[in-house]
Structure prediction request, 128 residues.
Amino acid sequence: MGEKFKGLLGFFYIRIYLAIIVGLNLLVWLSAYIINKNISDDLAILHYNVDFGANLIGNARQIYIIPLLGLIIILFNFFLFFAIYQRGIREIGNQDKFLANILFAAAGTANLFLFFSLVSIYLINFFK
Prediction:
């Protein structure tokens, strides 16, 4: 299993994907930390609706759910691809490359949207 894991990380495009995705997730964690650190009260606006205004107010530490969700998506997609890769194929075929692109691009896109959600939370809480 360790050899297959090293073999999977031996592919250049998978390392690039993982570097970008982990970098995005670290950016999301850093954003959540900055928001949590700068909130003076214990409460924060966690969701804002255009029609109703602030409709979810909670503890500022609940912001850490957002980067945790991004990490879960990354791990789920990586282990899903690893399970497919582990089925015994030494060389990754075109179908597996396509699946890797889909899974890792989806994880990156999800983390990018999570970062944008934290930016909106920051704007709502600090620029009223």
Remarks:
- The longest strand covers residues 43-49.
- The radius of gyration is 18 Å.
